[in-house]
Design brief:
two-stranded antiparallel ribbon; Prenyltransferase alpha-alpha toroid domain-containing protein; signal; Terpenoid_cyclase/PrenylTrfase; catalytic activity; transmembrane
Amino acid sequence: MNVRRSAAALAAIGVLAAAAPATAAPSPKATVPAGLFGKGDPTYDGVWRQSLALLAQHTAGEKPADQAVTWLTGQQCADGGFAAFRADTSKPCGGKGAQADTNSTAAAVQSLAALGGHDDVTGKAVTWLKAQQNKDGGWGYSPGGPSDTNSTSVVVGALAAAGEKPAELRGKGRTPDEALASLAVPCDQKGGGALAFQPDKKGKLEANADATAAGVLGALGKGFVVEPGKARDKAPACASDGKATPARLADNASAYLLGAVAESGHLMSAMPGAENQPDFGNTADTVVALAADGWTEQAKKPYAWLEKNAAKWAQQSGPAAYAQLILSAHAVGADPHDFGGTDLVSALDKLGPAPAKQAAAPEKKTTEKSGNSVWWIIGVGLVAGIGIGFLFSGRKKNRP
């Protein structure tokens, strides 16, 4: 969920067709506007990281700065969609301008819906998202692109956050649930229970942990924020019991994720050249997914691993990574202010405009100042694939 636009966004714009995220180190050509979280080049993830940062602050009980919220709402295109980043909002989207995409739009909707008071913005965005639904019931990253699990799931979460009933949406034929079911790996096959990002060129479904974590939320009609709930007792197992209901799809996917983290407590990177490295971002997504499906106790093992190992990753990766960890803490009922000795909320606050309640306190002025000096750099190691979750995460292949 973090630096999430992996190959999806990058391949979609022709920058990178493999699966590695773009280096987000500051560039002489990249101007980071006031109000935006992070200091890295926002070209591929500006709206995404801002949406997650604001959502995480809100979830942690803070009121995001008006400047930060205004920056996000100001990124909306005239037709209601959001592009990854608009350097010049006076120029229209489309054509040679920034291209709206479903992921940026859905993330913005989830964030602004949670904050409240932005019905005009979210209403236009929801209308735009509905218009992009494919005949198979799902959504692709770009309008008209082939459906994928991640994009379908983040849109479902956005529609639910906005008060819609995505399970009933048949814009051009099928429902989102049907689209997700078509991407589920059968239980009797390798990776059974998991979801694929997209079918490969031969139509084969290959298990993808990032897509699977996203798919759990999509099947359950939930977004990034999962409230801690009553834990279920018996761990799930992949099973085929006739009709592939959303609940069964989610349980099967959860069973796959639990198996993937059973031994080490974390996922391994699937990025080419980085297969022996842990995947921090998608492990955080797994925590949220398992908790969303009621497997809160089981989710505490990967969360405990993150507590011991993920603080440095977040420091290197920036605001969206801190947001991911805050949301994973929230999902299991943990305190994001005490994440293995790190105050995730304070660390996130330093990367952008101080929250409203902090800005009013004189003693917090130094925090805001230090936040302006923080440079968000995704190092070469992360480019190689040290798991960056929903943002540069599983959009790995088959991008137009």
